[in-house]
Automatic annotation (TrEMBL):
This is Dehydrogenase/reductase SDR family member 11. Belongs to the short-chain dehydrogenases/reductases (SDR) family. It comes from the Eukaryota. InterPro entries: NAD(P)-bd_dom_sf, Sc_DH/Rdtase_CS, SDR_fam. The lineage of its organism: Eukaryota, Metazoa, Ecdysozoa, Arthropoda, Hexapoda. Pfam families: adh_short.
């Protein structure tokens, strides 16, 4: 029987991007409650679309907190528009944060883990839309499909290096956060079973982190019982 425990992470450092609100804030709160870095939250203002900001943030973590054991790539943006008349600057912003920023943050975390011989854990907060598309969301699903591919590519790279660093992609369905456009938040949106909360995604993060070192949850899907993104024929 698999024993779930967060004990080995107590007092260790977790980096969570996009932790100021929504899913990221819920994840940071739960990790603090579980004793990460002696149960304290350290906010570091960072623009994950800028490599220099990311490098500066990791330098601060290294100097003030110590080596990284856990990375949760949660920062992400989306926009409700169409491909046939979309805006190139919006497209660039989405890919800079959802894809390139994620890659840079991941690179820096793994570099730190390897330098300190740490069998850490990388978690990408992906999306149901990283596995199926939905019209009206422009390049957002494409950016999340990229996250799916990046998680698997990284897993294979780490395997080839005989590394024990784990990688998990967590794909939530519709979550009640600020990324959801106001026009979608109707009475129907909030009916029981249509939407999940940020805390339930955070529960998923704690679950995958609680697995024994030899167990890797490669992909975890968390969706409401009546999923908005399920298409009926």
């Amino acid at each position: 029987m698999m024993v779930l425990s967060m004990e080995r992470w107590v007092g260790k450092v977790a980096v969570v991007t996009g932790a100021s609100s929504g899913i990221g804030a819920a994840i940071a709160e739960q990790l603090v409650e579980k004793g990460l870095k002696k149960g304290k939250f350290y906010p570091v203002t960072t623009d994950v679309s800028k490599e220099e900001d990311i490098l500066r943030a990791f330098a601060w973590v290294k100097e003030n907190l110590g080596p990284v054991h856990i990375l949760v790539n949660n920062a992400g943006i989306g926009k409700t528009e169409h491909l046939h008349d979309g805006n190139i600057e919006d497209w660039k912003s989405i890919f800079k944060i959802n894809v390139l920023g994620l890659c840079i943050v991941t690179r820096e975390a793994i570099k730190d883990m390897k330098a300190n011989n740490i069998d850490g854990h990388i978690i990408h907060i992906n999306s149901i839309l990283g596995h199926q598309v939905d019209p009206g969301l422009s390049v957002y699903p494409a950016s999340k499909f990229a996250v799916t591919a990046l998680a698997e590519t990284l897993r294979l790279e780490l395997n080839s290096l005989k590394s024990k660093i784990k990688i998990t992609s967590i794909s939530p369905g519709l979550v009640d956060t600020e990324i959801i456009p106001p026009h979608m938040k109707t009475e129907h949106f909030y009916k029981e079973g249509n939407v999940i909360g940020p805390g339930e995604v955070a529960d998923g993060v704690v679950y995958v982190l609680s697995t024994p070192p030899h167990v890797q949850i490669q992909e975890l899907t968390i969706r409401p019982i009546f999923d908005f993104f399920v298409k009926t024929v």
